[in-house]
């Protein structure tokens, strides 16, 4: 049950939040093998000046910032995580969201760290 948190510019949220949510969820299904009904997403639209970033960090031409934080149970090998990252940016690009403007952080913990409505 990955938990997804997305921070993004308010105008991007207003235009594309449903499509962004679908793109991330579809990438999870394709790359992480989660069930289709395993969707938990929190969007935090940000006003001008609330997202701070270096436009050239790590040699990337960054023009905007869309941050995706994923918390998941520790069970994915590195190759699977990389496939997920690639699947996300490929699905966001048709929305006009450049791969260079996406930052994804996947943090893992144990099954014992989760409660999802029942024990």
Write up what this structure looks like.
This protein is of the alpha/beta class. It has one domain: 2-Layer Sandwich (Macrophage Migration Inhibitory Factor). 32% of the residues lie in helices and 24% in strands. The chain contains two helices and four strands. It has helices spanning 10-32, 78-92; strands spanning 3-9, 41-46, 66-73, 102-109. The protein has a four-stranded mixed sheet with strand order 2-1-3-4, covered by helices on one side. α1 crosses α2 (78-92). The two termini are 14 Å apart.
- Rg over alpha carbons: 15 Å
Helix percent band: 25-40%
Number of strands: 4
Q: What fold name stands as the CATH topology?
A: Macrophage Migration Inhibitory Factor
CATH architecture: 2-Layer Sandwich
Write the H/E string, N to C: EHEEHE
Task: Describe the sheet with the most strands.
Answer: 4 strands, mixed
Our count of domains comes out at 1
Flag low-confidence runs: none
CATH class: Alpha Beta
For the record, what is the CATH homologous superfamily label? Macrophage Migration Inhibitory Factor
Mean pLDDT: 96
Helix-and-strand structural type:
alpha/beta
Tell me what portion of residues adopts beta-strand conformation.
15-25%
The shape is globular
SS element count, helices: 2
Distance between the termini: 14 Å
Order of strands in the sheet with most strands:
2-1-3-4
Q: Which labels suit this protein?
A:
Macrophage Migration Inhibitory Factor, single chain, 119 residues, alpha/beta, globular
């Amino acid at each position: 049950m990955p938990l997804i948190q997305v921070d993004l510019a308010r105008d991007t949220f207003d235009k594309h939040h449903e499509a962004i949510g679908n793109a991330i969820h579809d990438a999870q299904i394709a790359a992480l093998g989660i069930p289709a009904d395993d969707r938990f997403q929190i969007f935090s639209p940000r006003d001008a000046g609330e997202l701070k970033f270096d436009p050239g960090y790590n040699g990337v031409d960054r023009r905007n910032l869309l941050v995706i934080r994923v918390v998941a149970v520790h069970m994915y090998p590195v190759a699977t995580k990389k496939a997920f990252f690639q699947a996300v940016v490929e699905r966001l690009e048709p929305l006009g969201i450049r791969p260079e403007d996406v930052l994804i952080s996947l943090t893992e913990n144990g099954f014992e760290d989760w409660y999802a409505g029942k024990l």
